[in-house]
Design a protein that fits this description.
The protein is α/β, with parallel strands linked by helices and 374 residues long. Helix content is 29%, strand content 24%. Bound molecules: manganese (II) ion. Manganese (II) ion binds next to loops.
């Protein structure tokens, strides 16, 4: 029997532009989560540690991240864990780059697939052949899994691959493959990387294929939202595969849309936001719909009032429509302003421009009201 753990898309050294002043903390989060995954491997008595690409965010990671990974790998080696890595499209292989230089002293406990052609490592002791290849950025559209040349001499086998599974609303097109192509491969387990969303492609008695997903959410979008996982697996000597999935994240990203049209007064809107609060929560809040004038006025304060309820709160007001009870009385500046902008919005055909004018109208309303209070 062989036991493995599978991760991918850790993206150590990620820039985290969307996370404001929290960027450095998020970089530390992914380090700690990666270490947690390594700790889990030791705790569970894992034999093989599989990394299916994009361990680093770039082919030239910082010294700090390199040292961190080296330390983690050394800890794994000292616990008899064998590590397999395929470079991905972010940390792609460069001759004499990090994959050639940095990890040599780990010896036989670490295998990096540096060739764009499939390479096989036989582990007779575990009755398993481990196959992998480096992501080939010079031929990223090539369908490597269409007619792969594979050498498998052991009874059981594992493939590591960094590429894009084609399914409706697919996200990327790097080293693409179809369900048909991947289903006819002979492996007991296929360890995929590239998609940040966790995705099980198939899980049968003797064959399983998974994307673990990024172990921490990396962008403020649906693909990176929700709980994050690693995959733990076992292959028996007879080839039966057993998979379990473990949650590993430190922070959870949530993307929430609130339609302000539903709320008559601000208390109800605030209650709705509070329902989603959490110390480890990164909330991206998209406000939509037609607010009342009163709600529009309080929206500017929401960021400040609710920041403390979340690890990070990002409010997007740019999708809001114009208020329901918009003032149009021409005796007042605000009425004339609103009429003028509404006229322009009506006349504009381009949707982006329309939305921009709505943002301008909403900002203008609050600015004028603020000025009138003084
Ligand atoms: Mn990738």
């Amino acid at each position: 029997m062989v036991k493995f753990i599978h991760t991918a898309d850790v993206h150590l050294g990620r820039e985290f532009d969307q996370f404001d002043e929290r960027g450095e903390e998020r970089r530390e989060d992914i380090r700690l989560t990666f270490r947690r995954i390594a700790g889990l491997a030791v705790e569970k008595g894992i034999d093989l540690f599989l990394i299916s690409g994009d361990l680093f965010n770039s082919p030239n990671p910082s010294k700090k991240d390199l040292e961190f990974v080296f330390e983690t790998f050394r800890m794994l080696r000292d616990n008899n864990v064998v590590i397999f890595i395929t470079p991905g499209n972010h940390d792609y292989y460069i001759p004499n780059g990090i994959w050639d230089r940095e990890f040599n002293s780990l010896g036989g406990n670490l295998h990096i697939f540096t060739s764009p052609k499939f390479e096989t490592i036989d582990l007779e002791h575990f009755k398993v052949s481990v196959v992998g290849c480096a992501y080939n950025r010079h031929q990223s559209n090539f369908r490597l899994l269409e007619k792969p040349e594979l050498k498998i001499s052991q009874q059981n086998s594992i493939l590591l691959f960094h590429g894009s599974y084609e399914y409706p609303n697919q996200e990327y097109q790097d080293q693409p493959f179809s369900l048909e192509e991947i289903k006819r491969l002979p492996f007991n387990y296929i360890a995929l990387g590239h998609y940040h969303r966790h995705l099980g492609i198939f899980s049968e008695e003797r064959k399983a294929c998974f994307y673990p997903g990024a172990p921490e959410g990396l962008n403020l979008d649906e693909r990176n939202a929700g709980k994050r996982h690693v995959i733990l697996g076992e292959i028996s000597d007879h080839g039966e595969v057993n998979i379990t999935i473990e949650e590993v994240q430190r922070k959870i990203i949530e993307i929430l849309s609130i339609d302000c049209t539903r709320f008559q007064e601000k208390g109800a809107l605030e209650m709705k936001i509070r329902e989603h609060a959490g110390d480890n929560k990164i909330l991206k809040l998209n406000l939509t719909g037609k607010p009342t004038m009163d709600i529009l006025e309080t929206i500017d304060e929401l960021q400040e009032r609710f920041s403390g309820y979340f690890y990070l709160l990002k409010i997007n007001k740019n999708r809001l429509d114009t208020p329901i009870d918009i003032p149009v009385d021409p005796r007042f500046i605000i009425g004339r302003f609103c009429r003028k902008l509404e006229d322009q919005i009506d006349r504009t055909e381009n949707e982006d421009e329309k939305q921009l004018l709505k943002v301008a109208l909403n900002l203008g309303i609050n600015a004028i009201r603020e000025a009138e209070k003084r």
